[in-house]
């Protein structure tokens, strides 16, 4: 076990990196001989290692939950939820967030060096699943000496990991918070991801994935992928309220192909800035993992069978304007939990921001999570 | 006036092409010195030229309403609506459908030769609007000796043209049928189009639009644009029913990046086959025209002012699963028509196919159009 950062240092927002020994057997049949994990911790693990909360991040998220992003300098993606006096409080809990397997912020992924060849895996990295991500997190927690989690919490793809945690390691999860998520990727979800993948793979600079060390990567394709996905993160009403048909610079339309409308300029910026912080091959692998995600299919076709006999308490939260993983997806999870006899709370919150509501200023979300976590103490 | 096809031949599904003299003054300030129009007619114009119905096609549609497409060999896009015994019947009406200005099926567009230089306009073609498309159609009807239209009918972007017809030439339109359409493009509509344009323009084979005569055009970018747009034409429930998570070829997922799911294979096919029949620059120009479309803005900010004093009868049809131009968009049109004192019928139909419902097997749509058109005879 090769500890790169000292595991006993538990200051607020400590960025860490570790190489864990494998092999990690993957759902696809391959295995990884070792696993790198980039992660951050907040707070202090108590004497009986019982106060840990694992936070699971979304598709393009990372371990920098409440500390500034090392590349962009921006505040952590969930700083409103994690911190002193926040619902997930390092004064009370030892908080862990790990970069998911397949990503590009310190955990093993296509940009990592294949230990056999010493060169980047690129598309030779094995295809992974959400459950594989969870297995890698479990290895990290083993290393940290954490067997039982006070809670696993996540939104969007983070919520998928929470569900896989509860289904794969039920005895290790005391509470599970699943926000704006689903138990299976729908045809429409897959379709949007496929557009993004095709945009990346159509970029000649993608070079079959072997663009590492080249002057140019597939940033144009990655930007288009991000733009398409970004639309699905926002509500139609939210876009209308934020941008409507307001013009970018002019009194009237310019009759050309520059970004005339504010929404165009915004989307272009979202696409471009994404390419500064994310690896295109990681985007391929993680979207693929999400598309393969179908918890019922992993359990013989019945979602309830994923949760039989569980003692985990669940809190499922959806947003009324989320059309990516709509409330009906959350309801399906709650139905299955109920059918399995699990303890499940379900809240649909009203928020104007669409799927991205879980990241934005929705005070009710903070209150729900705070109350649910406190009740489990 | 240079009539390329004999204007007196009115056989069923006759494909025609004409070059009309300009100048045609465009909303953007430019003008076209002459206008090519590819069009088709069905049926016979009666002695007082009063039985003509103009059909307006959608973004990637064409004049081949009910005859086989000359490139793909596929049946016309609205063969279920137009033909003997159909709601729009050549036994009763003289039916005209013209390829829109900016398109690539015989009407002037970026692939056309600039008469000044003799080489393709490419991105030197002037930016056009939906109203410009309608002005070009009006010139064609002038040439055909048709002043008053029994009806103008169209779905999606075709419906936008119908609204512009009624607003720009109210005295020439006796009945107007607007299906699955809107009076303004929303921020989300613009956002999806911008993704498509960026996908095309990111393709190195686009070459700033000057790809005509090159070995390769921006077909990869155009395919991605089509894939993204295609998702918006279908309902989430329709995609689930048609494809769900069914696999393409295997018993189980392949853990790779081939098209594992049927919906991926379908989307890829939609993207690729589109590039055989459509010009990428036309896609840029027509999506731009749609984004600029805002009928209220053209009339001082009040949609009702576009229709004051009109004698046109209107039929507005929406579909309950259309999330591209949802029923609320149609309702806004009906509100404005009512406020303007116009005769307006409004029907929301239930159909599972999303926006594409106007092209698909929805018997109720045929009954509504048939009944509305007959009542206006």
UniProtKB/TrEMBL annotation, chains A, B:
InterPro entries associated with the record: AB_hydrolase_1, AB_hydrolase_fold, HAT_MetX-like
EC number annotated for this UniProt entry: 2.3.1.31
Active site: 156 (nucleophile), 322, 355
Pathway in which the depicted protein is active: Amino-acid biosynthesis; L-methionine biosynthesis via de novo pathway; O-acetyl-L-homoserine from L-homoserine: step 1/1
Superkingdom of the source species: Bacteria
Binding-site positions, substrate: 226, 356
Domain AB hydrolase-1: 51-359
Keywords: Acyltransferase, Amino-acid biosynthesis, Cytoplasm, Methionine biosynthesis, Transferase
Pfam families: Abhydrolase_1 (PF00561)
Protein location: Cytoplasm
GO molecular function annotation: homoserine O-acetyltransferase activity
Catalytic activity: L-homoserine + acetyl-CoA = O-acetyl-L-homoserine + CoA
Subunit-structure text: Homodimer.
Recorded family membership: Belongs to the AB hydrolase superfamily. MetX family.
Purpose: Transfers an acetyl group from acetyl-CoA to L-homoserine, forming acetyl-L-homoserine.
UniProt protein name: Homoserine O-acetyltransferase
Organism: Sphingomonas vulcanisoli
